[in-house]
Amino acid sequence: MKLIVRSLATKFKISAFPPQLLIGSFITYNFLRQNLVRMDSFQNTIATDCHPNCAVVVIKLKNQNPQTLKAIKSIIDIENKFPKTEDQELQPVLIGVGFQTKYWEKLSNKTQPDYEPRVGQYGNLPYGQGDLILHIKGETFSQTFEAVQQAISQLPTGSYEVLSEKYGFKYQDGRDLSGFLDGTMNPAIYNQRVQVGVNQQNGSYLIHQVWQHKLPYINSLPVEQQEQMVGRRKPNSLELSPPPKESHVARTRDENNKRLLIVRQSMPYGTNTGEHGLLFLAYAKDVNNFNIMLDRMTGKPDGINDQIMQMSINTFGNYYYIPSIDELHSL
After folding, report:
1. How many CB atoms lie within 10 A of CB 257?
2. So what's the pLDDT on residue 2?
3. Which phi-psi region, left, alpha or beta, contains residue 174 (left: φ > 0; alpha: ψ -120 to 50)?
């Protein structure tokens, strides 16, 4: 029995465990299995459903010293400070930690793709600055805010600069502030989201964009015109058949009208009288589908642009690598 436990402990990367667990192999197995899930799996924000609240924090790192990296690695453990109740399926707070892809390239010595700014007929897709991203899902705004507070406080003084801290919220029955349902074609089943969003290393790629909505302009348009621009009916999100060639539905598919699967985690943000729009967040096992979508939205290769860019202004965008728990702890 002791030999089995030592073998499992080596596999699970556990240097020590309670001696009393040697008493029963079933108890020992479950203890080790739970630790394996934490050490070898992907991060929790990738494939879970959206919580009612979220936060996205973009940070510039001023150094890569061991103290800073150790603090970053410990941020995901803040989840455990928010235990779930008996009636909750998921923990009330989930935290994803990622690095801008070229920054991750420096940390991992593995070549990574970079985000490319794009220029389109109806608007541009600029390149946003920042090395570290925190994607936090929260059951309540209070819990979300507190998790951000704890995460930032763990970083060593002088090692970082917060470039952006934005909070998202569920609007109505999952709609964007424009009134259209968001994420209609998202993979519905957890295992499907894992298949789409997680690579062989249990890592993932995250695209984050900030879209500021032009609500006065949107609301000035007849609903039928809005639907033509989006490619869906506004009340029930039914797809127009066929979708107009300049619609968002058509331009975020490939040239053969094939759906490009990604795991959307977007949420509305902002205030009525100030800046407001969409925190676009989506995960995928690689950036290929992201690139096709962004190219087609800005008129590549056929010159047709996505009309949704008349409804909203893109102010920020970049790619981030979301390392597996094992990759993160190996830094």
Report:
1. 10
2. 39
3. left
- pLDDT at residue 322, rounded to an integer: 98
Q: Contact at 8 Å (CB) between 306 and 252?
A: yes
The reported pLDDT for the residue numbered 206 is 98
Spans in the chain with pLDDT lower than 50: 1-40
Cβ contact 120:306 at 8 Å: yes
pTM exceeding 0.85: yes
Q: Compute CA distances 288 → 15, 137, 297, 308, whole Å.
A: 39, 26, 14, 21
- pLDDT given at position 187: 94
Q: Is 310 exposed, middle or buried (0-12, 13-18, 19+ CB in 10 A)?
A: middle
Q: Quote helix, strand, coil % in the chain, to nearest 5.
A: 35, 25, 40
State the CB neighbour count (10 A cutoff) for residue 20: 9
What amino acid positions are annotated as catalytic residues?
Answer: 182
pLDDT of amino acid 41: 92
Long-range contacts of 24-33 (CB under 8 A, 24+ apart): 25/1, 32/5, 32/8
Cα 29 from chain centroid?
32
Distance CA 152, CA 181 (A): 33
8 A C-beta contact, residue 188 and residue 263: no
Alpha helices in the chain (DSSP H): 2-11, 25-40, 66-74, 101-108, 141-154, 190-197, 215-220, 223-230, 248-251, 288-297, 325-329
The pLDDT value given to residue 86? 84
Q: Is 214 left (phi over 0), alpha (psi -120 to 50) or beta?
A: beta
